[in-house]
Amino acid sequence: MTIQQERHVLVVFPHPDDEAFGVSGTITTHIQQGTPVTYACLTLGEMGRNLGNPPFATRESLPAVRKKELLASAEAMGLTDLRMMGLRDKTIEFEDDEKMVRMMTDLIEELNPSKIITFYPGFAVHPDHEATARAVVRAVRRMKDRPTLHGVAFANDTLEKLGNPDVVYNISDVRTQKMNSMKAHISQTAWMLEEMEHKLQQGDTETENWLMQERFYNYRWDEDFEKSF
């Protein structure tokens, strides 16, 4: 599927590196097509469990390390509008719901995006992921003219409950940029990248397809997650 030109794309994730694996190719392609892209990263991932391999950070220095990595990832993608929203890692689920919705609404009203990318609520595994997704969906739900809302889903029951992705982009043309975005977050990704590159060298087609295809679900307003509350 071809990535279409958009008026503006807003990407909202809670942690540095959330963008790298699932959407960095899509972000890069939009930018190369001339579409403005804004990435709102809600935290600096200061509670990330990895401190480098071998360790080159402490719990106290990790936020600065991850901020530097996030800036390097943005540079790899060609992204110039990076918003660091200043929330604390592993606490987003405890933020006031209306505060979170207001934060998302302010971004949407400022940028007027035609597409928003975030996690898909109910299929994003981590509490920070889920809280971010809920806030975005709630903000968009209140809009009269809603932008396209694309969700990244990777829970174990995703295929069973959501079926195949609605949108699959082949981002092989920007493979280098995606790899550099992932490598930028080296404090968190060293082990994964080492294993992935070994599999790629062995000609593992499943790993290559995972790397070169970015998958999204259109948010299904007729199956709105709020109905399950």
From TrEMBL:
Record GO terms (molecular function): hydrolase activity, acting on carbon-nitrogen (but not peptide) bonds, in linear amides
Pfam name, any one: PIG-L
InterPro entries noted in UniProt: BshB2, GlcNAc_PI_deacetylase-related, LmbE-like_dom_sf
PANTHER family membership: N-ACETYL-ALPHA-D-GLUCOSAMINYL L-MALATE DEACETYLASE 2-RELATED, N-ACETYLGLUCOSAMINYL-PHOSPHATIDYLINOSITOL DE-N-ACETYLASE-RELATED
Name of the protein this chain belongs to: Bacillithiol biosynthesis deacetylase BshB2
